[in-house]
Specification:
Radius of gyration of chain B: 22 Å
Number of strands of chain A: 0
Number of domains of chain A: 1
Distance between the termini of chain A: 38 Å
Largest sheet of chain B: 3 strands, antiparallel
Shape of chain B: globular
Structural class of chain B: mainly alpha
Number of helices of chain A: 14
CATH class of chain B: Mainly Alpha
Helix content of chain B: 40-55%
CATH superfamily of chain B: Cytochrome-c3 Hydrogenase, chain B
Order of helices and strands of chain A: HHHHHHHHHHHHHH
Largest interface: A-B, 30 and 33 residues
Distance between the termini of chain B: 26 Å
Strand content of chain B: 5-15%
Oligomer: heterodimer
Number of helices of chain B: 16
CATH architecture of chain B: Orthogonal Bundle
Amino acid sequence: MYLAATSSLPLRLYQWTEQLFTDLGLPLWLLAVLVATVKAALIIGFILINVIFLIWLERKLGGHIQNRLGPVYTGPFGLLQTVADALKVLVKEDIIPAAADRWVFMAAPLVAFVPSVMIWLVVPFAPGVQARDLNIGTLYVAAMTGCTVPALLMAGWSSGNKWSLLGAFRAGAQLVSYEVPLILATLAVVMLAGSLSLNDIIRAQQESTWFIFLQPLGFVVYLISAIAELNRTPFDLPEAESELVAGFNTEYSGFRFAIFFLTEYANLLGSSAIAATLFLGGWSGPFLPPFVWFLLKTYLFVFLAMWIRFTLPRLRVDQLMNLSWKFLLPVALINVLGTGVFVAL
Amino acid sequence: MPDAAATVSGATREQDGEEVRPTAPDSEVGDLHTEEMMINMGPQHPSTHGVLRAVVTIDGERVVDVDSDVGYLHRCFEKICEKLTYHQIIPYTDRTDYLAGMTNELALVLTVEKALGLEVPRRAQFIRTIMSELQRIHSHLLWFGTFGLDLGATTPFLYAFRDRETISDLFEEITGARMMYNYMRVGGVRNDVSAAWVKKVRTFLRQFPAALREYDDLLTGNPILKARTRGVGKINARTAIAYGASGPVLRASGVPYDLRKHDPYLVYDELEFDVAWASEGDVLARYQVRLEEMRQSLRILEQALEGLPEGEYLGKAPRIIKLPPGHYYGHVEGPRGEVGCYIVSDGDRKPYRLHWRAPSFVHLQLLPLMARGHLMGDMVAIIGSIDIVMGEVDR
């Protein structure tokens, strides 16, 4: 069980519980289950609180970019708007269209949601505060983000709606295409750090400098690909409101729609956290506590994504593919090559 | 007329025969069996600008054919007019193209005045000109915003509405309404404009160029916008003329035809302005023509306010209007194109038959020609670029 020695409070808590378990004669596997449950609960709690804030932030930010106020009535500064919306959505009827492939349709939101939470397993919040420091951390993250594709395909296919189907196909093509430059951009960072573990990457950045300075090209490639992976404007083709009505989530309502919505923001937060870790040195930084640094850097990416969303029009399907295969991929490859030479020297 | 028919079909063939450039290279599907899919776009769809239903045949994302189905908003406008006196028709015209009430009213009122041989006071003519041009900007602003929405840019919409709001307020101050004005009268206009109002319009004229620059920064200069609109939905001049296109759609296809220049009404022949036009005939050209038209409207407004004379705003007109038996046609350059009013009178107080020439209806016929061979995303841009108003298409 990995719990870093640097942070004493969780460690002491763990040792105390362990002691308690041995004193009471309870089996230690129960302790492992307990610890895992607590971690999962903490992470899901963290995600939920942040997503509630993120949705509010997006609406407020969008409002101010667009010459309006955003939510103002519910709570101070409209902070409770998301809570009100969530309550509304949760009590809505859960409609499953007659033409839908029932079980696939019902499972799709969950299939989308689970990987978005699982990414957080390897995210280092602060020194030692990490659910698990996998030595293949970045690879794991890439694998988890890749899991979104089947979920969206399931949602679109099972809806029994042609618009949803188009949206799902777009999602499939787009996510697979942008995965490649995304991973290549991550690869360059991994080459610099010499490790796949996210903790090692942070440590490497503490020793040299933030990788955004060593990898400006990689950073741009990562940012563009990540926004595409998140289906956000200008790459929001799978759910293009004005073209495909709402793409793969056209037929979803109530709770299931809420899960998709939650997933979208959880992914935004997850990608931002990974980006902050890979390029901005994660939790490391002077004066402020590491966790605050981590949040600040994460929200910097969140802000960038939102800013871009409210500024740009949407790309067309073929332009989207061209951008990935004809521009981002070569750039990412050159970047990897350059980094290789740099590392070898 | 066999000649006209020949031109139409000839032009169609030419347009069809014209190499339809696919926007993405065709993919080899090998042994895979593929089928075209028919998809129903509308009448409830975010981008069909009302209740247009387009039955689109697609091959993957490529549009093979479009069949537009209209009539969801049909309100028997022309038939109702046969039961109304000419003054009673005025508020109904507001509801055809509900985004350009002023110019619609003007088309009717000008036709009636022409039939009666009525002289309209100069002040009324100037006020009508001012209202028409404000209406043009008002309508183009809404188009600009929704076009941005169609392309997935949400912010321009709110910027456009901010400025459109100013014009709505200006209309409200004089006519009491923000959309359905019922303002034009046979022989003049319903209410006079005040000096304070004129001052407010001047303020708007001063501020609006900055807003236009802002739009350019936000959307026009954007490479994504250019990439998405250039070469999309092309219509050549011959086809545009053959189909009876008018307004920005025609002018963007390289025909600088503007009724304000070529059949001047009101005081347009005394004012200096250029006809905005482009030769490419694609979505981008139509976009640029409309933006330029707003600039030209500002010029016209400037001069019209300068020249606004004192005097009557509502001239002498017979209380009971009876048009002499005959056929009358009057037209104005509306924001969307030529708005025409065709009246057949049998000498009664009501028209025997009234036909409304709605530019949107004409332009909608061009949709299949524009959209074939493009992608679904382009389809939305094309519908946005012809700026249809379903209230006018269905009437």
